[in-house]
Amino acid sequence: MMDHALVKRFRQEVGDRLAHQRRLDQASGLPPMTGEDERQFARALISQVLEEHARSEIGLGRTPPTVEEEEALAAGIHAALFGVGRLQPLLDDAQVENIDINGCDKVFVSYADGQELMREPVAESDDELVELIQILAAYSGLSSRPFDTANPQLDLRLPDGSRLSAVMDVTVRPAVSIRRARLGKVFMADLVGNGTISPDVGRFLTAAVTARKNIMIAGSTNAGKTTLLRALANEIPSVERLITVERALELGLDQFPELHPNVVAFEQRLPNSEGQGEISMAELVRRSLRMNPSRVIVGEVLGDEIVTMLNAMTQGNDGSLSTIHANSSMEVFNRISTYALQASERLPIDATHMLIAGAIDFVVFIEKRNDYHVGGKLRRYVSSIREVNGCDGRVLSSEVFVPGPDGTALPHAPLSCLEELAAHGYNPGGW
C-alpha cells in the first residue's frame, strides 16, 4: 500500500518549488512554462524530493524506499499535482464505468461487466476530498468553478473526458459521482459491434445525419446518450463547422481535428461570488447562431435553452443534434413542453408542440438493462426510434423502429422521408 501521507507531504513540497520557479521566471521576464514543460519540470522536482527523502531515511538509520516504492510515490505525487490524486488508478482502469463517492471512505465502483464493488478510500478525510474537488474545479473547463459553502454544486469534465458531479453541504457528507467516457472516439461501426444498435439502425442513423435531419437522443441517466451523440457527430463530414454548447465540456469533438478540424466548443459560465458574469445555455445557443455554424450540437437539454434550440432548428440550422432525459421516445415531447413552460417565453403546450413538429425529425431512445440471467452483464441499446410527422393539437409521430425480442430496435413502420434517406445510402433491410 502506498503511504498517502507521504504523497500529500511531497506534493506540497513539489508544488511549493514549482510555484517558486514560476515566480523566478516571471521576475526574470521569461515566458511562462507550457503545460508539458511544467510537467517535465515537476518530474525532475519529484525525483529531487524523493532522493532527498531517501538520504534522510538513511541518515536516520532507516531503510529508504525500494525502487518500486519510489516509482509508486512518484506516480502518486504527479497524479496529485496534475491528475486526480488517489482517484487516478480508478480512472486509469479501462473497465471502470462509474465511480460514486459518499464521503472519502465510501467509494463504490461500477465495472463494464456489471460488477459493483466497494474500493479503498480516495482521501484521508472529507475535507481532503473537498480540497481535491476544488483543485480540479480550478483547472478543469474554460473557467474556474467555485466549490464551497456558497457554491455547493459542481459539474465539470475531467482531463480524460469523464464527467464529474459533486455536492457538499446539502448532503451529510460530500458526495461525488464520476461517469467515465470509455468511448471517446467512437463510430457507428463500434456501436454495431458492441450490440448497441443493429446494422440496419446504423445505416439509418448514418443516412439521417448526412441528410441533415434534426435528431434528439433520449434516455435515462447513464444510458449512453453522449456516446451515441459522439458517434452520430463523427458521421458529419469533416468540412462542416460545428458549434457545441454544453453545461460542462464533455463531448470533446475538438479533440479529434482529423475528424472535425473546425469546431468551437461553448461552455456555460456560472456567476461569480457576487452573482455576476453568468452566461446561460440559452444565451450560448443564441450566440452560436452568429458564429456561422454548419450545425449546432447541444450536449444536453435541461432547461429553458430548449426554446432557443428548437427555434434554431426551424431557422435553417438543419442537422442539429442534442440529448434529453426521458423514459420513452414518446415522453420526450412532454419533457420538452415542460422545459418550454419554464423558459422566459412561457410557451403554452400547443405552441411548443407546433415548434417541436417543425424542428425535430427523429427521436432516438437508448436504454440500459442489467441482464442478470446472462451473468449480470450491463447492456446499452437503442430500443426505439420515432419519426415526427406533424402537429394536430399535439405532436404527431410514428414509431419507425420498435423493440425486438432482445430489446434492440427493429424496423416497424414506413418512413415518410425514405426516398430522401435512400439518396444518402439507406436501404432498409440491407443492401
Q: How would you portray this structure in words?
A:
This protein has 431 residues and is α/β, with parallel strands linked by helices. The chain has 3 domains: 1-82; 90-182, Beta-Lactamase (2-Layer Sandwich); 188-422, P-loop containing nucleotide triphosphate hydrolases (Rossmann fold), CATH 3.40.50. The protein is built from 13 helices and 15 strands. The protein has helices at 4-27, 35-59, 67-82, 88-92, 126-139, 188-193, 199-210, 225-233, 281-288, 305-313, 331-342, 349-359, 418-422, and strands at residues 96-102, 107-111, 116-119, 153-157, 163-167, 175-179, 215-219, 242-246, 263-267, 295-301, 321-325, 362-371, 377-391, 395-403, 409-411. Strands 9-8-10-11-7-12-13-14-15 form a 9-stranded mixed sheet, sandwiched between helices. It has a 6-stranded antiparallel sheet with strand order 3-2-1-6-5-4. Strand 10 (295-301), helix 10 and strand 11 form a beta-alpha-beta unit. The chain is elongated, with a radius of gyration of 25 Å. Residues 87-355 form the Bacterial type II secretion system protein E domain. InterPro entries: P-loop_NTPase, T2SS/T4SS_dom, T4SS_GSP_E_ATPase. It holds the Pfam family T2SSE.
